[in-house]
Each structure stands twice: as C-alpha cells, then as structure tokens.
Amino acid sequence: METLRLKEHRLKLNMSQRDVSNQMNITQAYYWKWEKGKTFPNAKQILQLCSIFKCTPNDLFGFKGDFSVIMDKLDQD
C-alpha cells in the first residue's frame, strides 16, 4: 500500500485532523486511520484531500510520476 503524506500537508495549513474530517464529512477516527496508514482513502477521497490541502495527487503521494496509474489501481482494490 502506498503511503500518503497527509500529516505533512495538514500541518502546513495549520489544520487539525478534526478540521480535515469535518470538511470531508467523515469522522476524525476515520481520517486518523488514513494518516496512520491503517486504512486508505479511495480515489474520490484522495481528490477531495488534494482540494483541501491545495496540492496535487503527486504531492500527496510524494513523487513525480503519473498519478492516473495509481488512481486506477486504487479503484481496483
């Protein structure tokens, strides 16, 4: 499973886990699991996170590749 750089992006914007989870209409515990790598958001949620964090999926994954390949893989899981 890929690791997302959620905490890094969240802290750059001085946001709490609750702030992010409220914007996504999910529980803080659900978001916490993503940040800790216990579960993983789906492709739609990744795009929501990018919108909140004002970043690209590449930034969220921490690399300079073609994110569409990863997004397709996520939708298959």
Total of helices: 6
Poorly predicted sequence stretches spanning 5 or more consecutive residues: none
**Share of helical residues:** 55-70%
In whole angstroms, how far apart are the ends? 10 Å
Rg on CA atoms, Å = 12 Å
Question: N-to-C SSE series?
Answer: HHHHHH
Largest sheet: none
Strand elements, count: 0
Which overall shape is indicated by the principal axes computed on the Cα atoms?
A: globular
Binned strand content: under 5%
Q: Structural class per helix/strand content?
A: mainly alpha
- Round the mean pLDDT to the nearest integer and report it: 86
List strands and helices in order, with pairings.
Elements: H1 6-12, H2 17-24, H3 28-35, H4 43-53, H5 57-61, H6 67-76
Helix pairs in contact: 2-3
What does this structure look like?
The protein has 77 residues and is mainly alpha-helical. Helices cover 64% and strands 0% of the residues. Helix 2 packs across helix 3 (28-35). The radius of gyration is 12 Å and the shape is globular. The N and C termini lie close together (10 Å). The model has no long low-confidence stretch (mean pLDDT 86).
